[in-house]
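quick one: zinc ion bound model?
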Amino acid sequence: MIKCQKCGNVFPDNSRFCGVCGAQLYGPTPALYVQKVDEKEPFLAIIFSFILAGLGQIYCGKIARGLVIMVISFVPMLYVMTFALSGIMMDHEDFMSAMWSFAIVMLLYLVFWVWQIYDAYQLSVKWNDEAERTHTKPW
Ligand SMILES: [Zn+2]
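yep, here:
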């Protein structure tokens, strides 16, 4: 005999629904209710951040982080434009010293750019680990 969880009436073993209140007597297994969280493809995270700095982070659900990286990555672009415009009017000595600071900024940007690709990859791996473990979105 099966007892209805809702109203307490008892029915034969093969009953699927309660004859009094209509509740389902054999509920679906809890496993079916486990939420499937979409996986983040690490390869895509790398590609996105390669195309546009911060895009891989946004793909991995870190919107604010991605936007901050995007804004930071625009700074060297402004710097290049300023350098190009002011460079025309500089004499040789000033130009050479400006060249050095330009090279340093570009080098720092390169490090930042490589880091943010690695960061996007890390986020996708972390997302997948947490999603698999907890069955909920990690963030
Ligand atoms: Zn019932």
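Strands lie at 2-3, 10-11.
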